[in-house]
């Protein structure tokens, strides 16, 4: 077996990395030329700034520490999703988006009833499946909001079918427009636009859900919180207002 150092610096892996970086540079140019995509990226960065402030917030509350860990998970998933989509791995980027969605749903449930945080962190496997399984969490949130059309289920299923699970529909994310399936990263402007747009929507959800867990006196986070609200208002006005 080849030594690990030889493998890391092998020509093939270096070539793959060089290709990813070239695709990233081209993706940046495409995003930079599109004001809507720039705004999606701005709200994603702003949500990540919020989560980073949340990470730094001191607390002795064990329940809040759990939410902070979920915030770290969301930050890393946002960062990974951006890294992958800009380098041409759209399906893998969407896998991280599904993780963001599932984590945000769970934190939203905790926001509704904070006593559930302690129950979740002490839960055995049976309780996790019965009370905190993804399907159970989505249904509880839909019932809370009166969403009879089960939009959360549809969104979650979309990410599952296109990215997280091996499916026939998922093969579409391996095909550059007008071409056969491609091994490795590739640039597809349509897939890039769709990925950035979905990320922006998820970032808005993440910011909104984690925001209430900041204690009011934590002034260090004020700038990040205010910037997120400013960008969110602009995002809604420019992209989703009639």
Question: What does this protein look like?
Answer:
Helix 3 runs antiparallel to helix 4. The chain is mainly α and 242 residues long. Helices cover 74% and strands 0% of the residues. The protein has one domain. The protein is globular and about 50 Å long. It contains eleven helices and no strands.
Element layout with pairings:
Layout: H1 4-8, H2 11-32, H3 35-56, H4 62-86, H5 90-112, H6 115-121, H7 125-132, H8 134-145, H9 151-164, H10 189-210, H11 222-240
Helix pairs in contact: 3-4, 3-10, 3-11, 4-5, 4-10, 5-8, 5-9, 5-10, 7-8
- Principal-axes geometry comes out as globular
Radius of gyration: 20 Å
Number of strands: 0
| Unreliable spans | none
Keywords, please?
single chain, 242 residues, mainly alpha, 11 helices, 74% helix
């Amino acid at each position: 077996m080849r030594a690990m150092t030889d493998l890391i610096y092998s020509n093939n892996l270096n070539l793959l990395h060089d290709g990813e970086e070239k695709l990233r540079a081209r993706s940046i140019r495409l995003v930079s030329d599109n004001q809507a995509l720039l705004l999606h990226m701005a709200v994603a960065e702003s949500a990540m700034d919020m989560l980073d402030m949340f990470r730094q917030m001191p607390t002795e509350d064990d329940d809040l520490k759990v939410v902070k860990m979920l915030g770290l998970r969301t930050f890393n998933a946002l960062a990974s999703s951006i890294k992958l989509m800009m380098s041409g791995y759209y399906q893998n980027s969407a896998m991280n988006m599904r993780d963001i969605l599932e984590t945000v749903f769970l934190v939203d449930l905790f926001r509704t009833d904070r006593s559930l945080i302690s129950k979740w962190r002490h839960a055995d496997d049976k309780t996790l499946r019965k009370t905190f399984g993804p399907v159970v969490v989505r249904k509880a949130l839909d019932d809370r909001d009166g969403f009879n059309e089960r939009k959360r289920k549809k969104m979650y299923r979309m990410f599952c079918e296109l990215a997280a699970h091996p499916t026939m529909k998922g093969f579409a994310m391996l095909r550059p427009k007008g071409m056969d399936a491609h091994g490795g990263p590739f640039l597809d402007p349509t897939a890039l636009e769709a990925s950035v747009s979905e990320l922006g929507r998820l970032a808005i959800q993440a910011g909104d859900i984690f925001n209430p867990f900041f204690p009011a006196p934590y002034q260090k986070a004020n700038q990040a919180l205010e910037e997120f609200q400013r960008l969110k208002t602009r995002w809604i006005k420019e992209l989703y207002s009639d």
